[in-house]
Amino acid sequence: MNHISLRYLLSLYRQAAMMDLAWLLRDTRYCLVVIFSDLITSIAAISGVFLLALRFEDFSGISSSEVLFMLAFLMLTKGIREMFIASANVSNFSRRIGRGQLEHMFIQPLPFSLQLLTEGFIPFSGNSNLICGFLLMHYAIRRMELVPTGWFWMQMVIYLITSVATITGVSYFFSAAAFYAPVACEEISMSVFDISESLMHFPLSGMPQMMQMMLLTVLPTGILGWFPCLALLGRPPLHFPSWYPLSFCALVWSLALFAIRKGMRYYVRVGINRYSAAGHRS
After folding, report:
1. Are 144 and 66 in contact (CB under 8 A)?
2. pTM
3. How many whole angstroms separate alpha carbon 121 and alpha carbon 20?
4. What HEC string does 108-139 produce?
5. Which residue has the higher pLDDT, 223 or 282?
């Protein structure tokens, strides 16, 4: 990316950030309610698993400190997704398709990829999970008495980006169904995130190997937190290579882009029927 395009990209991020700040200043009470509600939901999701790990040390197959490390990693993953792509239905792409919002993107003087890359940026209202994830990660590392190196932090950043990209790629792959059934599949991407977030908080080390294999391939929730955290600690599960999440992410996005392109070809032929003559969504 050359200097001009990078500056332009940063200007788009700045515009998105200013719009997010405007919402915070215009309706501060409602914005804070949304922020704290989301934070409480995230804490509730991880606290149950951690309390089980404290009470039943063998339930997870790993120590309670390692469970806390995994939960902190997952909170960081969710925080990154919320800050950069959760807003404006960027991650929930089936909503854009099912609600006829692709037409809004067609008239913008920007490529689709650039719109999706910048429109979901909400650094003010979407930073709660990221901040709490950093604090929880700091505590987990101290609890395990780790001495992280620069390579450790670099690996963590790569795994975090890979986890966000993987769950987003799975969402986009299933979102392609909304091209063919916009009413029925409008919320399919939200269902993908709900299923993933309900399973990804559980450590898989104590489960049978067949179940671990399924949750690393067919339903890849184990790739989002459990696998990268064990890899960061130097023991990737099932003797898989440490780069397995990267290769799986590349595969998911290859399938997602194929499905989206095929769906777009169908979409430009038949259009969308979610708007009536009065302009209201049916």
Report:
1. yes
2. 0.88
3. 8
4. CCCCHHHHHHHCCCCCCCCCHHHHHHHHHHHH
5. 223
